[in-house]
Structures are given as structure tokens and as C-alpha cells.
Amino acid sequence: MTDLVIRPLVAGEEELFDSMPDPLPQLRQVSYADGIAGGGYRPERTWVALRAGQVVGRAAWLLPPGSVGDPWLERFDLTAEPSVGAALLHAAHEALGGPKAYYAAAPAYWRWQPQVRAVVETPKAAARLAGLVEGDERLRCSWTGGPLPAGAGRFSFRPAINPAEINSLVARIGDPELLTGAETARMVAGVNLAHDPLAWLTGPAHDWRVALDDGEPIGLAAPAGDACYPMIAYLGLLDAAVLSELLVDAVATLTAGGAYEVVADVDAHRVAVVAELERTGFRRVRSRTAFTPA
Question: Which UniProt keywords apply (predicted)?
């Protein structure tokens, strides 16, 4: 690596980041230029690896204005070998005050496409070499229209009464099936979306939906229509039997408010929930794997 140069960008060099062709153009994500304009990306938190003057690795740590947490690695692309990426991360971590979290994004079904898999695996291998620990994979799913499955009519649904009812159900549920934007809530505001969703979802309580079986609450969902995308920000169950109908109710609530697309994030290991999302008409659009400092 004698001809390798690793360094941060300086102001005015933003186009250098984009001089590297996007290795995953099918992946929907905020562009680097838009991130710079919005203040989340900054040149001093953007590093490149150059070989013979060409960018062979690039990494950009994101921290939206007003965030309370540390920046996290949002963009990390490599055309060089993993050892180059590890060297880039080691240098950047030293300058940033230590290793930071990395959220490795990939297209849906990336494992099934050999060329895409090779692109995805290279920065992940570099992250491991740099000492980051691979964690859970989460899937982003998107509903973009179409008929919703008809329910059996066993359950009924209503708006939440007040924040106290929401907090009580959240405490009883404990581990929800869907959390959309949980990483952002944690990194930007220090909020655990599973345990304290109202600290992040500050809309009216009546926007939440409560599932009932013979008048007893058995499920809770937060259809959030005013987020960056209309989304099911939270969905938790006290009775697994209501999953299908609560999903349909949440989507119908958002479409009644004008949504043409609804997104939902789910842990990849929740196979039954993923299957129910797909039966409801959602399709997988992204995978995201968390890496954390050791």
C-alpha cells in the first residue's frame, strides 16, 4: 500500500467523494451532496483512500444538526481490498476520537446476487478488520399500493385514548415486532424507540392505533404520516393472532391520510413478521446491518 493516500476531505473537495462511481446505484439513499447541504455530512468527517490519485475507498460519518449522539458511518464504499478499507477506518477513528457505529446498507436479496454480494461484503470485511463487531440485520420493506388483505372481522381497532394508554401498552409489550427508524431515534435523540416511543414520536396520541379483542387491548401500532416517509414506526403485540389485521389497519390509516407509500423496518430474524408484511403487499427494498465498536 505504498502508493495509498488516506485522508479526510477539506472544504471545497466535496466532488471528490462523488468521483467514485456508486457501486450500488440500485440502493435508495440520501446523496452525499444533499447530506452536505443539510449539514449531516461534513468534509472533516469524510475520508477517502486514494491510489494513483483515484478514489478507491470512501467513508462518510453522518450527524444531523441538533443530534445528541456521536456520528455514525453511513456511507462506506470500497473498490480496493478490505485491508485498504480497514486502514481508512483506523485512521478516521483515531481522528474522530475512537470507533463509531456503522450501518452497512445493501439492496434487498443481496445474498442471492453474486456480483452485488461481492460489493456488499468488501466493506463489511474491512469493518471487521478494523475491530467493529457485526450485529443484527434489519430489513426495510415498502408498500406502494394495491389491495389489502381482508380481515376475518374478529378484531376491532380504535385510536389510542391518551399517552398513558400508549405507555402502558408499550410496557406490557416490551419487545415490539416493528420499529422503523429506531437507529435514527437512538443516534439523534438518545431515545430507545422500543421502550419510550413517545419521546421520539411526538404527534397526537389519537394517531396511534389500538387493536382490541372483545374490548381488550391486544396490539398497538404507530402509523406516522408526518415522518420522512409515511411509516409504521412502532407495532407491538400482546396476541400474535392480530398481526395481520393490525398491519392492514395501520396501512389503511396512512393511506386515508394521503400516503402513497408506507415503509416498515423489521429484524431479519423475525421470519413470520417478514412473511406477514409480504402477504400484506410490502416488498423488501433494503437490508441494513449494524456494526458497533468492540
Answer: Transferase
Domain ranges in the chain with CATH number 3.40.630.30: 143-293
The DSSP line for 105-136 is: EEETTGGG-HHHHHHHHHHHHHHHHTTEEEEE
| Residue 262, strand partner residues | 143
Grouping H, G, I as helix, E, B as strand and the rest as coil, residue 21 is coil
Which of 224, 127, 128, 241 lies closest to 185 in space, CA to CA?
Answer: 224
Residue 292: per-residue pLDDT: 97
Go through 117-149 and write b for each residue having 16 or more CB atoms within 10 A of its CB, e for each that does not.
Answer: eebbebbbbbbebbebeeeeebbbbbbeeeebe
Q: Work out the mean pLDDT of the chain and round it to a whole number.
A: 95
For β-strands 231-237 and 178-179, DSSP reports them as antiparallel
Residue 119 has pLDDT above 70, yes or no: yes
Q: Which fold has domain 143-293?
A: Aminopeptidase (3.40.630)
Looking at domain 4-130, which CATH architecture does it have?
Answer: 3-Layer(aba) Sandwich (3.40)
